[in-house]
Amino acid sequence: MSESQAGGEVYDARKLLRELALFRHLDDAALAALAAELEWFVLPGGATLFEYGDPSDALYVLKSGSLGAFKPDPSGALHLDGVVAAGETVGELGLIVDQPRSATVRALRDSELLRLSRAGFQELVARNPQAMLQTARLAVRRLIERRSGTSSAPRTFAILPHDAASDARAFAARLRAALSRYGECALIEADAARGETSAWFSALEERVRFVIYLGASGDRDWRELCVRQADCLLLLTDAGAPASPWPDAAGFDAERALHRPRHLLLQHRDGAIAAGAALRWLAQVPGAQHHHVRDDRDLERIARLLTGRSIGLVLSGGGARGFAHLGVVRALREAGMQIDYVGGTSIGAIIGAGVAADWSDEEMFDKYRRAFVLGKPLRDYTFPFVALVAGRRVAHLLREAFGPRDITDLALPYFCVTANLTAGRAEWHRAGPLWFWLRASCAIPGVLPPVFHRREVFVDGAVINNLPVDVMRTQGVGEVVAVDIGADDVLYAEVEEYALPPWWRLAWQRLFRRPLRPGILSILLRSGMVNAEAASQERRALTSLLLTPPLDDIDLLDWHAYERAIEAGYRHAQQVLGRANAPRELP
Q1: For the packed helices 324-334 and 347-356, what is the interaxial angle rounded to 10 degrees?
Q2: Cα separations in angstroms, 254 against 124, 207, 237, 302
Q3: How many CB atoms lie within 10 A of CB 373?
Q4: How does pLDDT run across 65-103, given as a tens digit for each residue?
Q5: What are the beta bridge partners of residue 185?
C-alpha cells in the first residue's frame, strides 16, 4: 500500500523513502511500487522487533521513535550495542548475507515502523540492481560506526524533575535555547499534548529537529507519556536537596529505562559544586551519567553532549613527557575548542583531572610544577621488596593538589584508567576518591608500589590501555581529541653483555662517565608501557584529531624538562590546529 494509516491520519510512505540513502536513487514509479509493499505498524516501548538468531525475513524502516540493538555477552546477558534513530533502516545485513539475526532489536520508546519482506526486497533488487549496492554500502557503514563506538544522537528528551523545587520550567526554557543552536527545538508541556494521538507526536518530531517533553506536571500519566516518547531521559534535581528515590521507575535503573541514556542533572544554586552531592544522588539512580549545572556554560556543554557535538579529550601516559599535555590544553583553549569530557591514563589522568576540575592554565602550571618538579615524587626510595620507592610522596602530593574531592565532584565528566592485575583487565573509574585512583593510575610496576583495594591489585593503566580512546567513545561524545606522548620511546645500550659488571664499576661509570646502559627506572617504565603500544595504534584510528608532540629529546623521567615539554606540546598543537582549522572543522 502506498499510503499507511496511522492514528486516523494518512501517511505517505514515499516521502520518507525519498529521504533514505538506501532508496534515494529510485524514481517515482519505483518508489510507488516499493511503498505498496511496505507494511506499517506500531511497536510499543520495550517490545521486541526480532531476536538474536531469528531468521532474517525482512528489513525495517523506522518512521519515528528509536530502536536498540542488543548483543549477548559470554554469559548470555544482552547489552546495548547500538541505537537506530528515526529515518534509518534495520535488518538489511541479514538479507544481504542470508544469515540469522546478529542482534536482538527492541523498541527503546514507542516507535512506528515500515516492514519490507524478504520477497519484497528480492523483487526490489531484481528490478533495481543498484539497490543491492546501496544496501551493502549502508550495512558496511553501520559496521564501521559500531566498531568506532559512534551511534545516532537522540532527538527527543524527557525532563523529569525530582520535585517542584527543581524549577523545571525555567531549566527547560534554557535548555531549549541551547539546543536551538543546532536545529529547531520544540518544548511540549501537558496542556499542549493532552488528548493527542501518536500521529500528532510523530508529525511533531518530523517537523522539528529536537523535542523536549517537560514532565513537570503532577500528572503521572503525562510523565509516563513523556518517558515513552523520549530517546533520552533528563533527571533534574537540586544538588543541595536531600537525596531520595526518583518518582519515576524508568529513572531508577538502565533496565527499566530500556537502556536509553539517563543524565542526572544537578543544579547548584550558588554556582559552586557541592561536595558529595553527585554521589548521594547517583545512589538513587545508579548507572546514570551525571552533570553539574552551575551556569549557562554547563548547559551549553550538556546540549553539545545530547546532540552528538561534544568533544572528549583523551590524554595518554608517558612519564615526564606528559607535561606536554599542559601545552596542548592551552592551545586547544586558545583556539576556542570547548572540552566537554576528559579521560586519561597515568600522567595523562593526572593532567586531565586538572582540566576536569576547571583549573585555568596558570593554576595547572603552578600546581603541577609544585608537585612534580619541586615535589620530587620519586625520591622516597625503599628496599625493593615490592617497588623501588615507597609511594608515600606521590600520594601526599596528589592529596595536596586535589584535596579530598571525589571524582564525581569534578566540574566536567571524567574518567581515569588503571590496570587490574587481579582480574587481568583495564578498568576505568568515574567515582571514588580522586587522589586514590590517580595514585593507582600512575603506579608504574616496579617503580611505584601497586594500590591494593578490596583484595585486588591495581597498577598503571598504561600496562593495558595507554590511550583510552575506546573508553571515551562509549561515553557518547561526538568527537575525540587524543594526545599520545608515550608510544615511541626507544631504549638503547652501548655495551654488549649478558651480565652486569661489579657494582663499583657501575657506580664509577654513572658518576664519572656517560652511562652505557639505561637505568632501572627507565627500564621499568618502558616495560610497563610497551605491551600497550600495538593496541594504542588501533585506538589512534578511533580519534577525530590525534596530536603527537615531538618529545624524543625528553626522557620519560626528566621532571626538570617541565617547561620544555609544555612548550613542545603547545607549538605542536598550534601547528596541527592551524592545518585542521579547528575547532569548527575537525578532520
Answers
A1: 30
A2: 39, 30, 19, 20
A3: 16
A4: 889 888 887 777 778 888 888 878 888 888 878 889 989
A5: 210
- Tally of CA atoms within 13 A in the half-sphere of 580 that contains its CB: 20
CB atoms within 10 A of CB 551: 26
What is the spatial distance between Cα 576 and Cα 329, in angstroms, rounded to a whole number? 13
Taking alpha carbons only, the member of 586, 52, 549 closest to residue 328 is 549
* 311-315 and 451-453 strand pairing: unpaired
Q: What span, in angstroms and rounded, lies between the C-alpha atoms of 331 and 572?
A: 9
Handedness of CA 446, 449, 453, 455 (dihedral sign): positive
d(CA 328, CA 572): 8
At position 80, the amino acid (one-letter code) is L
Q: What is the pLDDT of residue 321?
A: 92
Task: Return the closest-CA partner of residue 443 out of 424, 474, 421.
Answer: 421
Name the nearest CA neighbour of 438 among 372, 367, 379, 351. 351
- Find the range with the poorest average confidence among 251-265, 504-518, 528-542: 504-518
Residues 185/176, Cβ–Cβ less than 8 Å: yes
Spatial separation of the C-alpha atoms in residues 189 and 192, rounded to whole Å: 6
Show the beta-strand stretches assigned E in 150-293: 156-161, 185-188, 210-214, 232-238, 262-267, 289-293
* Residues facing 148 on adjacent strands: none
For 105, the 3-state DSSP assignment is: strand
Q: pTM here?
A: 0.84
Instruction: Give the single-character DSSP code of 250.
Output: G
Residue 260: all three cell numbers together: 536509553
Q: What is the pLDDT of residue 451?
A: 94
Distance between CA atoms of 546 and 527, rounded to whole angstroms? 24
Concatenated DSSP letters of 468-512: -HHHHHTTT-SEEEEE--SS------SS--SS---HHHHHHHHHH
C-alpha cell read off for 295: 551556569
> Can you read off the three cell numbers belonging to residue 483?
594526545
Across-strand partners of 426? 419
Residue 428 bridge partners (DSSP)? 417
Phi, psi angle pair for 369, to nearest 5°: -65, -40
State the amino acid at position 58 in one-letter form: A
Cell of 558: 626528566
Length of the chain: 587
Sign of CA dihedral 397, 402, 406, 408: negative
Q: Which three cell numbers stand for residue 27?
A: 524514481
Contact 460, 416 (CB under 8 A): no
Phi, then psi, of 85 in degrees rounded to 5: -100, 165
C-alpha cell at 292: 553539574
